[in-house]
Amino acid sequence: MKWRILLGTLAIASVVGLLAFVALGERERMAGFTQSYHARQIEVGAALFENNCRTCHAPQGTGIEGLAPAINAADLFNGQRLTAIGYSGTVEDYVRGVIAAGRPIPSSGTNYPNRMPTWSQRYGGPLREDQVDSLVAYIMNWDEQAPGGAQPTAAVPSGDLAGTDISAALPQGEAESGQALAETLGCAGCHLLSTVGPAWRAEGSQRGIGDRAAERILQADYTGQAASAEQYLFESIVTTDAFVVPGFEPGIMPANYGQRLGKQDLADLIAYLLSLR
Fold first, then answer.
1. At what angle do helices 91-101 and 129-140 cross, to 10 degrees?
2. Which terminus of the chain has fewer CB atoms gathered within 10 Å of its CB, N or C?
């Protein structure tokens, strides 16, 4: 009987020792797991930013003059910007709220007239909550190295600008170049990868934008000035609120592409859109 008691005591002591050994390394293991998870979040957030945010806020979040303010900026992370607008929460909460629910009014004064669209599915946007969290993690990762001035990217390119006269003659467009430009500008983020803007590709009974462009101008509720499919697409890109597709809100799409794109760029974009049938 005594040897059984002894064996039982030794077994209990061994188990306790093993648990203690595991517990000693648990904190370090969990810290490593948390660090790896956060790193993966930032990677996912970087991809989401590239696809959905870069076209307005620039590739490194330094903003584009006249289009969207800098978010990779010291005045955001040090709280100056939040104090100026009377926001008393944390920077992270502010960033999450703006991404999730958007901004129904223009941000940062009259220099940035466009509204921020809603991105979280909770508010009718295209992104899941975990994707919103990943975007927040990526943006908050800029905290320590955010530039003080955050000089915005110039919005006006060199060369012959497209302008806003939809009757102006354009050169011959190349659909392949237009597709590459649509991806570079981030148009795909709203029109192909999410539901922020009207879908370009055919979906169900709805035909692609290449067919719909000619049909739009014949609708009774059409409010623009286009007389052809090409002019309708021209108008949709450079004077974005001339006609707002039913079910979508005005003021969401950047309104200064006429001053950001050259005529060849615009012709290429139109050729690409006309190919989506």
1. 140
2. N
Contact 68/112 with Cβ under 8 angstroms?
yes
- Whether 230 and 274 have beta carbons less than 8 Å apart is answered as yes
DSSP string computed for 74-126: HHHHTSHHHHHTT--S-HHHHHHHHHHH-BSS-SSGGG--PPBPP-BGGGT-S
Q: Is 169 a member of any domain?
A: no
Same domain for 69 and 138, yes or no, is yes
135 vs 141: CA distance, rounded Å: 10
Same domain, 180 and 147: no
| Each residue's pLDDT tens digit, 147-188 | 664 455 554 454 589 999 999 999 999 999 999 888 777 787
DSSP string, 8-28: HHHHHHHHHHHHHHHHHHHHH
The secondary structure of residue 56, as a DSSP letter, is: H
Pair 31, 132 in one domain: yes
HSE (side-chain half, CA atoms, 13 Å) at 233: 25
Residues 223 and 147 in one domain: no
Interval 53-91: pLDDT, tens: 887 888 788 887 767 788 888 888 888 888 887 788 899
- Do 180 and 151 share a domain, yes or no? no
Residue span of the structural domain in which 24 resides: 1-155
225 or 159, greater pLDDT: 225
Residues pairing with 161 in the sheet: 262
By C-alpha distance, which of 186, 192, 231 is closest to 208? 192
Number of separate domains in the chain: 2
Cβ proximity of 197 and 273 under 8 Å = no
